[in-house]
Amino acid sequence: MAPLTLYTVSNDLVSSLLTALGNAIPNPVGAWLKSPDLITGLSVLVFAAILLAASMLNTILLIWWERKLLGRFMDRRGAMHVGYAGLLQNFADGLKLFRKNTFQPREADSLGFYTGPAAYMVTSLILFGILPISSGWNSGALPLTLLLALAIFSFAPLFIFISAWSSNNKYSLMGGMRSAAQMIAYEVPILLAVVAVVIVAGSFDLTTIVYEQQNYWFWGPLVVALIVFVAGMLAEMERIPFDLPEAEAELVEGWNTEYGGMLFAFFMLADYLRALVGSILVVLLFLGGWTLPTWVPAAATSFPLAGIFWFMLKTYLVFGLFVWVRAALPRVRTDQLLRIGWNRMIPLSLLSIFLAALLVTVKCLPFLGCVPSPGS
Amino acid sequence: MASEPAVPFVEIEALRAQQFVPAAKEALSAMIAERGQEKVVRPVFNWAGRNSLFPLHWGLACCAIEFAAAFGARWDAERFGVVPRSSPRQCDLMIVNGTVTWKVAHKLITLYEQMPEPKWVIAMGNCATGGGPFRTAYSVVPGVDKLVPVDVYIAGCPPRPEAMLDGILRLEDLIRERKE
Amino acid sequence: MSEMWINMGPQHPMTHGLWNLRVKIDGEMILDVDPEMGYLHRGIEKISEDRHYNEVVTLMDRCCYVAGFAWEHLYILASEGALHIQPPERAEYLRVLCDEFQRIGSHIMWYAAFVQDLGLMSPFLYGMRDRDLVLDLFQSYTGARMTYEYMRVGGVRSDLPPGFTDRARQVLDWLTQRYEEYDQLCLGSTIFRKRCDDLGTLKAADCVAHGVTGPMLRAAGMKRDLRRDRPYAVYPQLDFDVAVADGADVTARYLVRMEELRQSVRILRQVVDWLDRHPGPVMAEQLPRWLGAPYAPVGAEGYLLKRNFPKGVGFSSVEEPHGEAQAYVVNEGGEHPYRVKFRSPVFANISAARQYLVGYHVADIPPIMGSVDVCVGEVDR
Amino acid sequence: MQPADLEAALRPKLGDRLLTVEPFARTAGRVRFRRDGALDLFRTMRDDLAYRHLSMVGAIDWVDHREVFYVLWSDERTEYVLLSADVPADDARIETASGVWPSANWHEREAWEMVDVLFDHHPDLRHLLTPDGYAFHPLLRSFKLHEPEELEVKTRHV
User: Fold this and answer.
1) In this structure, is residue B119 part of a structural domain?
2) Structural domain contains residue B2
3) Whose CB among A161, A253, C321, C328 lies 3.0–4.6 Å from A257's, allowing a Cys bridge?
4) Rg of chain B's alpha carbons, rounded to an integer?
């Protein structure tokens, strides 16, 4: 039996449906319905729809997770009256925002005002088509998934800046400027930290990187890279302590000050989509993805969808760490943020590359652990 | 020159409000006419609307402190999905928590206009309801309903956080029964 | 970006009230500021001329809504001076009890708002939680959480309920533990120190020139506290230290307020012990009837008393949580004050905004203004 | 410092522009002066008597005239002193103190808009608490407050 993957599921679904339909309908149309090209095309669409729904559902769950966790950190309960334990709260928020009046400030530039959020949302969604969720549960085995993901991830400041600029608000503009400066400053250390992972794993393919970690997760040997990556991800996701573009205290709501209704919901969703992607990347690169250490009993990994279960559990825990940081740390200032980025993060990431190269050469380092040889 | 009471200024501001209220009513009725057909989805959207009221994050006077206390650990208004947002664009509820003066009146109206429909106003406390202890003062608007349409009034000077939460729940009841 | 003016307010998360800070910025740097006040101007001084002496107390609570007791005390001291009335000693101790608990409540409220301005969210909730305990105490003997109307010309309205002092001691014990937690959350955080050190510096000489008082002045190293320098009520009998710090920056103001919180606990322990041991009247005897009961019908006797009551001018100053507040009450005979004038400490502290804001970043405005502890109610009155 | 000491210290500088020094509750005394001696008095108080802190400037409308009062504080002697000058109601103006104590700036703005006392050479005499262009001075005795019923009539058409 072929391994259960998302694509095979949708392919089976579509092919059985279309075959039944094609048998019922007389030939020229029926044969066309049964043609493998159509089945492939449609199953890709179904696959995309499932992916979209799953990622949206996860994002909304993630918001709930953050609100409940924050509530607990703050000695209160968080949303609890809408649905069981407030699980439906974010659906209510989304529906309400969907119904709100759509408007555009008088002096705003309509092209940028509307394309900004849409593009931000779309680029965040595309990422889910690339990331492997479990063995086989990805869209395709591209050789350079990691690079592609990071490239798409770094589109965001452009769209944020476009929407901030075109909403014709001074606070939005300042937020957009900060966002651009911050994301560019942290793009470099993130990439350098990833290079360390790539050196050890010997591949740009996320699936390969995960399989390389089957014996040793990378967070131990590559702890410096992990620190740089997590800090950079916090900045990329615009979360406290690096949430300057949305710094509520001085910039009202930052670059989305002028956005309301569905456009605001787009921003909100896209923010959390990116947060989800960030957590997933941390899990994939450093925490072994969907794999578990070898000493774990086989029962833990043999039940259906075990890979996805462990993967999502890790993702939510990593995101919980981000929430914890949010509850415990104040915000840094713009110049401090940039100074941390250029003066601290880049040397650290260079150090992590050096350590990674050393690791590959000598296999084991005191206190940091061992790595398997690449391509083993 | 300074011997007359402050009527002219009051009237200027009242005139401003006079122009505003009919326009708001017109917009409201247009919206109602447009949404009259949606019979099936309305309960769902009403459920969503009443369970996710984002109040505008601003503090006018004493009631603002109780407003803040209602978001504190003991009362935790977020339980009901009430999360204050700083930008009026993202709000659907304006809680007027304090004394409204004529100096801030047109800014209040601007903020109200910046909120996208559908939107609601809660007059929190005696000052917002009718001027409170400052009703006779030359600079105080005797009730925010002179400026914007108010849905729920909360009594108290200042109302306790429970009273504010109760006001929000009353507003939720209003939204539930909304026939449009 | 070229230079531009932005309006921070009247609806802005930084303001914590209703005022407008106009800021001229170049990129992220502040070139000039111009505070614009008056959005909450309710004409309290004018309305007071239309009120009985005791009715003005109602307005005082709403004048500064986070430090209502301090302002009641201020006004009562001035009116008692103007009316030549001396309250009993227990009433004075009760007023100090109110004042110091109010200082704790106000400073915790400040802590909650200030740390939130830095982006740290949890302390806001912790602060509100602990402040509610203090408000519960207020509620147990005044019936209100924020607007008390407790002090009267000639004493206080009522005595403490039974068991109050024990509850007060419990709250004080709890608060003493919490202060450690507050310090861990702020001083223990490197980011906090990086952001607040050498921020919003206002040296002692500038403070004096611009009339800045209270924790801001003490943070600049000047040991000035009206409770020590011009004692009122029973402060001479109480043992406490004046909190000072050297930095003149935001961290120093934080340290001063935290130390004041601890000193308030120390004062309150003495006050609570004294109150336990010394029962007695809480209202002066032989008050004019129209003062004791403002709404009672005033007969011929009361009318004569009213007419013939000695005229006078009362001046008082108290160390309010925000700084030095003063009241000037003119009594021209009769049941209404002729003129009431208040000096709000925050009024002076904000008026010096240009001195401590220019040259910093836009992101520094919220912590700096947070460290000033703005209460707009008393600025606009 | 007693009122007599104050008078002894001030009389040589001010001459007959100093009217009286009388005792005043909880302060060192109340110095009454003629308004043409304002600036000299302010400088003397700050430089010679070390009253470096101006706490409050206020004004009172006594219908026939207006009184401007200043509350000063000295850190050296830890005491207050009051200065007070009468200005006629039809020509209510006095020299500003903001050149001597910068803290007078806002207090004088408030006194001007509330009691209509003009402060000469004030750097920035704008409305502070009332809106720009507000034509009234609310703390004058002639400015009457609304009765609630009256207010109802006036705002009903809104």
Assistant:
1) yes
2) no
3) A253
4) 17
Q: Which residues of D touch B4 (CB under 8 A)?
A: 136
Flag if C119 and A241 touch (Cβ within 8 Å).
Answer: yes
Per-residue pLDDT, A203 = 82
Q: Which residue of D has its CA nearest to C36?
A: D128
Range of the domain at D77: 3-155
Is residue C109 within 8 Å of residue C127, measured between CB atoms? Answer: yes
Residue A375 clears pLDDT 50, i.e. is over it? no
Distance from CA of B26 to the nearest CA of C (A): 27
pLDDT cut 90: percent of chain D above it? 2
CB-based contact, D63 to chain B, within 8 Å: no
pLDDT digits (tens, 9 = 90+) for C275-329: 888 888 887 776 665 565 444 444 555 554 555 566 778 888 888 889 889 888 8
Looking at chain A, which subunits does it touch, using at least 3 CB pairs closer than 8 Å as the criterion? B, C
| Chain B: partners with 3+ C-beta pairs within 8 Å | A, C, D
**CATH number for the domain harbouring residue C281:** 1.10.645.10
Can you give C128-180 as a three-state secondary structure string?
A: HHHHHHHHHHHHHHHCCCCCCCCEECCEECCCCCCCHHHHHHHHHHHHHHHHH
Quote the percentage of chain A above a pLDDT of 70: 92
**How many domains would you assign to chain B?**
1
- Touching pair D, A by Cβ (3+ pairs < 8 Å): no
Q: Number of folded domains in chain D?
A: 1
| Interface check D78 vs B, CB under 8 A | no
pLDDT of residue C61: 87
- pLDDT tens-digit series, residues A170-212: 888 888 888 888 888 888 888 888 888 888 888 888 887 887 7
Report which of residues B29 and C211 the model is more confident about. Answer: C211
Instruction: Report the distance separating Cα D25 and Cα D31, nearest Å.
Output: 13
Q: How far is C177 from chain D (nearest CA, A)?
A: 35
Write down the pTM of the prediction. Answer: 0.86
Tally of structural domains, chain C: 1
Evaluate whether residue A202 is within a structural domain.
yes
Q: Which of residues 284-343 of C touch D (CB under 8 A)?
A: 312-317, 324, 326, 328, 330, 338-339, 341, 343
Domain containing A297: what range? 100-370
Which structural domain range is residue C296 located in? 44-380
Encoded amino acid at A205, one letter:
D
The verdict on residue B165 lying in a domain is: yes
